[in-house]
Design brief:
3-stranded antiparallel β-sheet; 8 helices; alpha+beta; globular; 21% strand
Length: 226
Amino acid sequence: MRQGRLGASTPARGGGVTWSLGEVEALARKAARGGGLTWGMADEAAKAVLWLVSFGLPGPDALAGYLQDFDEVDRSSSLPTDPLSDTWRAASGQLCPIATGTVLSDLQRSDVSLTLHSLSWPLLFLPFAAWSTNTARLEWQGVTFQWFDASLCVSAENQALLSNHARLASLSPNTQDTGKHFKRAWRADLSEATLQDLTHFAARTYAPETDASKLSGAGAGLKDED
């Protein structure tokens, strides 16, 4: 896999690399586009990852896993078949978290009671749910997120946060405020594996070098006659 980085990143504890939020967003956008999303949808995915890492959540890890699972998959069949209902299912049997989240944002529903069947990588759906309403809760097996305005808290089993499949997820009004409260983060840790996966997808957006571009590039080896 091709490795790369954006800007100046610094070492993190545990052998990873710490990135600014802007660097994470830029890498996520290119990786999402390289993974088959349109630029518009890639931008939505990048904003979702940015929101997650701003709370210290593993958004880049979730995006890397999602892109692997949905690589070369037609996402048009992974949308809610009846977005005006209170129960969402996909024709493919798997709801895409980015496409489904975008549908939720576009609908601007005032009613937040929603059941989602077979939601892939539900963590990536969380930002869209939070953007759709100021106060609500999102639950799937082993995880309960609650938010009110800018406050976010969670009760979760660690491994469940990065579940690649929620058999049943629910979005409902928030009636309590319990669990771990998140503080805002200004940098994010990326493991080497996640960095490799995201840069692998991002590399697909790079135009292949031609003979002309090689000659016009810096350090092409042409002699300066001046």
